[in-house]
């Protein structure tokens, strides 16, 4: 019996029907051009440490990783879950047992058959090694493989977002016969050399810091797929170089292009080059000002509210980011299925901010300052964080608060400072991922106040919030769950655990003539199985 | 140079020149030489304008350099902000006026450090010779073969990019030329009769180095010091271009570096501070050359 598991489906069904109705009216030739075999697609990479998305999150590993590895399912348009390596699945009535039937003739790139044991091994590996492994699969108590092509997951409590986590980006199917040799998975040499995957493309050449070339997997389990013969990922770190290459057509397809809003305007004017901000909903890249809530003055909520009144995120998104981003209203990205706009809003009002600071016990001192703090700027998203930080510095100066900016020279330095809680304030950003349990709970859960980056490093803890998070994690009814998350978002914004900045300007730049670009909410991090080149 | 050197032996035919220095003091003579050098005077004028603007400018033009005052990336002449705005909508003119202070201060600080290290090492090596010389020159050679920019980047990255650290980084990578020059001068002067005379009446090493030889080695060192201000400013700009600038201080180099990602849409954002750097360094070079001509006694007769 084919039962669709995910609760999101109940909401999505009307949407799917609507989508089919809409596509039927599209002029023939655009949506239904006959896909053709062959051709080479040039993308790019900013550099990666591993090609195995099972042990590393992020776009640099994920973009090629989702091509090299297959998952149990894929996530299609509007969060629709589609069969991939699992041809069907069923869920018990108590939502605690999920049974997958696997495609029978699927093989790894080295020719070895993919079985339930590999799925079991992969899930256990991800659970133990992936940064979100625990939040995704913490409730998976045991995995049975009753038949070679049947896998049963036994859950300790319902996991509403389970299916979303089973696509290749978050749970790639890895070859047990290669990786199960006792070595540390995170540092396993086969993550970079001689990678044996299960997906539509095989690694032909991997020269770190130079280029990665993937070629068609002739033995892929979906007949006549993929269409492309080859995907090339030259390493292009410098954003300006990337813009020029996109302009000249040297990069044909650039998800997570890292361009700035002003570059977008420029690229839109180039013939044959297109830009879209679609395909980032599932990733949900948000930015925020993180304040260390352990120490004065930021332990005082009124001080944080004063800051929120002084920082006009509308201005940032409309002027500094050219109207191409939207201000964050809470911990969830506008593209998230559980997003709620109904959260407290703090109007831009410097006078109010100043009087709030006076009342909170921070009047202007003898040196003309109320207080001063150091604002850390991480190294990994300067195009977003530097303008934000400089804007905050200028706004704080108007409130007589002195802000010292400190730019981290490299990722490690920043991670060390923040994860050891040795900071006052930092610009930060994180990915929501489609299920808030993965991307959002980590920032608010009292149990997650850890010396780990992108955990609850700011030290926020509220029993009421914890209760709501726990309830939302196991609520299987979509609408009920959505309501809990609306309360959570309002509560987060009410407590000002973080001050939300404009969402990221994430854009995909692509040339004319590429058909079937993924319309999954995962965008360029979804498998490019159906992508083809037009004549 | 060689033809001038061969001209030198002719003066003995002239009347004894012992009275000449008394007629015109060396300082005055130097100034006259400098004054007659048009290029040098031009350089001096530019430099004075820049320095005066940097000192009094922020008092007269009070737009805060870090405030977002207008639409980002506005070209020059299209708003009340004469030179346009940068990627955050900050006034470029205000940045230019305020950035001058920082840029010139870093230039001077780094030059002072360069000269201090260079002269000390060069003086010790040149004066003592022997193993001191060998060791110090090995150290100098070591620093000479290090890629300057890379080494400075490492220093700045290790100790966070603050103005002090940047000045120190520039200082410790650029002292080698000064050291070699000082050493050469010391090697030459320490054999002079007046040094021997001073030593014979019991002068100690430190007096010989600092009071006797150094003042006589000064002219070329002054020129090197002047020129090293220029190269320090360029160096700072280079570091800023690579993103290694003090985020809390507006400098010209940082303006170039900050606006670099927007260069395709805003040429002025990098050109204007770039021109300011260019003019300052040019002015310093002209003054340095003028000083060279004026101080070097061998060129005076021209």
Question: How much of the sequence of chain B is in beta strands?
Answer: under 5%
Tally the helices of chain A: what do you get? 16
What is the CATH third-level topology name of the largest domain in chain A? D-Maltodextrin-Binding Protein, domain 2
Number of strands of chain A: 20
Q: So how many helices of chain B?
A: 13
Name the structural class of chain A.
Answer: alpha+beta
- The CATH homologous superfamily of the largest domain in chain A is named Periplasmic binding protein-like II
Reading side by side through the largest sheet of chain A, how are the strands ordered? 15-14-16-13-17
What characterizes the major β-sheet of chain A? Answer: 5 strands, mixed
The tally of structural domains of chain A comes to: 2
- The name of the CATH architecture of the largest domain in chain A is 3-Layer(aba) Sandwich
CATH homology-level superfamily of chain B = MetI-like
Beta content of chain A comes to 15-25%
Overall body shape of chain B: globular
- The counted number of beta strands of chain B is 0
Helix content of chain A: 25-40%
Mean pLDDT over the residues of chain A: 87
Main beta-sheet strand count, sense and barrel state of chain B: none
